[in-house]
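Appendix B. Extra example for self-study. Work through it before the problem class; the solution is given directly after the inputs so you can check yourself.
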Amino acid sequence: MPNMSPKKNPMPSQEPDVRNKNFREVALGYTEEQALNEASRCLNCKNRPCTQGCPVSIAIPDFIKETAEGNFEKAYEIISRSSSLPAVCGRVCPQESQCEKYCVRGIKGEPVGIGRLERFVADRHNAAGSAKTVMPEKNGHKVAVIGSGPSGLACAGDLAKKGYDVTVFEALHTAGGVLVYGIPEFRLPKAIVAKEVEGLKDLGVKIETNVVIGKTLTVDELIEDGFEAVFIGSGAGLPNFMNIPGEGFNGVYSANEFLTRINLMKAYKDDSETPVMKAEKVAVVGGGNVAMDAARCAKRLGAKEVYIIYRRSEEELPARKEEVEHAKEEGIIFRLLTNPVAIISEDGKSVSGIRCVEMELGQPDASGRRRPIEKNGSEFEISLDCVIMAIGTSPNPLIKSTTEGLETTEKGGIVVDENGKTTREGVYAGGDAVTGAATVILAMGAGKKAAASIDRQLSGKSE
Amino acid sequence: MNRIILKQKLNPTVTLFTFEAPLIAKKAEPGQFVILRPKNDSERIPLTIADFDRNAGTVTVIVQIVGATTAELNEIPEGGFICDVAGPLGRPTETEGLKKVAVIGGGVGCAIAYPVAKKLTNLGTSVDFIVGFRNRELVFLENEFRAASENLIIMTDDGSYGEKGLVTDALKKLIDSGAEYDEVIAIGPLIMMKFVCKLTEQYGIKTIVSMNPIMIDGTGMCGGCRLSVGGKMKFACVDGPDFDGHEVDFDEAMRRNTMYKEFEREKACRLLNVK
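Solution. Structure tokens for the complete assembly:
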């Protein structure tokens, strides 16, 4: 008999007023008892609607069934058949718009906490210190993966399991891509990412850091070097700015820079060698996960007032619901339906404020969201000493400009077909480099799809 | 990990490091830079490539030991290893099709101007190489500079070596005495590049400057290195580091470079053990 409680087991978390002063993980994870209880809320429906919401089609009811019966390792096996990074996805997936959106229990109450259960199962597995991975037998094919973010890691993992000789090239000094430079420690501890990367190395994946493809080596040189297929998972690129006056003043950051200083370069630690501005009053422009991350980091660095400035309403906020809730609990001030028009500096050097206008929502635009329209005469100013722009990125030109025959869209994303194949023979791509800024799970899904496609191509070759 | 095969002190604050980096050496061109992290917990700093040897697989940087990270680099002995080096980054300096060029270097910037002068000279361009230092004690690589140019002019602030005066004085004199430059290439402190540009603007001579803003990844991800060039936002790491000097907003660049001055001063004091 399933547990008919209409509510999810709440996630044990650090208290908002405690956690907004430290960088330790916010959500602490279910206990075994909570996990068993939550898993028993699953009805194990015949038509499995949750599965259709999962970009990598995890057999969700099956893993939950095993969890409910206490077979946690079995549950982990089921998840890892479809997902390369369960401990990561359990933490950062937007479950409310994916699996949990379709959960039948969500019709008359809260859906089953699928993400929380995934995290529990993955953490349990990692804590148990799994048996030594058996190195798969090599099939003699060499594949290069560009970028060690979610799409690259997923692609490399799937290929390595099939016996491919995989080398991952990473431009930065640490593997993990956005999982290490972008997503903060309090949402995704770096030890978890490091563990996933170690897991890949155990499968025989080689990781070459400090290699910038498009500069140190080109895609063509990789192919000349004997790589039979190349997967481009180089991620999103140059940060966007608004092109409003004042973006050159000191105290204006892109979210990428602010987060990279804090996460990759560890500026949140007192003894860090990397400086980051410790501002009193901070505004983050944007409404996505990156904006929430930046705002919550600023708060943790000691800012007294932190604003999220977003031009649409709460309903359109693209961030994960849980991140918005967490941000609010932590004291982030939301100025919705507000759009900056200029950054102000009293001394002509550093930021002293931001001038904004109020917006209202008009007719839906091409994206289907109601277009924000400026309210006449609504200008106002907020006094600040730091502004962080979190309004997306434009594709990085390095690989495109050095790879002939690689077609890109008008916006600069790499063109791929339904199998992740680019317009260049033997070259595949996925993740933000194709779609523009999206989610970890979509990137992972794209990496897996490309891996399957590469395998079909190369295994056919050897026959 | 990249092994330092030559470490040579060029003056009291400037040191040359040649290290193994075969992939970078294979691709490097004058004007490009590397991002380097001396130790596992160091900052990432951009350093312009001063020289490279494709056969030996080595890259040379010439570094002014001014802050904490350069001090950490300086702690590594010859034979020791630099933790991380990535590159070559940025676009190479354009050197094709120039008949006569004035290459101007200021202080440690001379080291960066040197490979540009060398390449131009090898291409058959007539190069007047103007180098500026504060005093005689700071002058380095004079023989190399001479070999890389048709005409080397050394300027010192105090007149203790070469001629007394600023690099702009020397440039003005050359132009006024009839030198017809296709281009001026200026590499050095922002204030020097600004004044070179002011001068050449009067004469209508195209001027290229090499910008060295604060940078983290160096690959077009962080946006920290943004500059205003011709009223548009540019990223030094992927669009530069060379820009048309007459279009660069130097005042903004100078302001942005002071962003972490306090932090760096504290850190450097801690590291260099001074108050």
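Self-check: Chain B is about 30% helix and 30% strand. If your reasoning did not lead you there, revisit section 3.
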